[in-house]
Design goal:
- The chain is mainly alpha-helical and 82 residues long.
- It has one domain.
- 79% of the residues lie in helices and 0% in strands.
- The longest helix has 31 residues.
- It is elongated and about 55 Å long.
- It starts with 7 loop residues before the first helix and ends with a helix.
- The relative contact order is 0.05.
C-alpha cells in the first residue's frame, strides 16, 4: 500500500463526501486520481496533435482566423434576420 499525506482541509472535505456518498475515502481518492490522470493524458495527446499540425504546416494565421470568425458571425446574423 502506498501512503500520501493530505492537508487537514482536504481530509475534512474527503470525510464529508465519504459519509454523504457512503463510499470509502479510498474509493473517492482512487476515482479522483484516475479522472485527473485521464484528463492529463488527453491534454498531452491534444498538445502533441497540435504540435504535429504546426510541424506539418496545417495552421492558419491570426488574421485568417479573425477573418473566418467574422465571416461566420456575419453569416449567423444574416440567417437570424431571414
Amino acid at each position: 500500500m502506498n501512503t500520501i499525506t493530505l492537508p487537514p482541509a482536504i481530509l475534512k472535505r474527503l470525510e464529508k463526501i465519504s459519509s454523504s456518498s457512503r463510499r470509502s475515502p479510498e474509493a473517492i481518492v482512487k476515482q479522483a486520481i484516475t479522472e485527473k490522470l485521464e484528463y492529463e493524458e488527453w491534454a498531452l495527446r491534444q498538445i502533441d496533435a497540435g504540435l504535429a499540425d504546426v510541424k506539418a504546416g496545417r495552421v492558419v494565421s491570426h488574421d485568417e482566423f479573425l477573418k473566418t470568425l467574422e465571416q461566420a458571425r456575419h453569416e449567423r446574423k444574416r440567417k437570424k434576420a431571414a
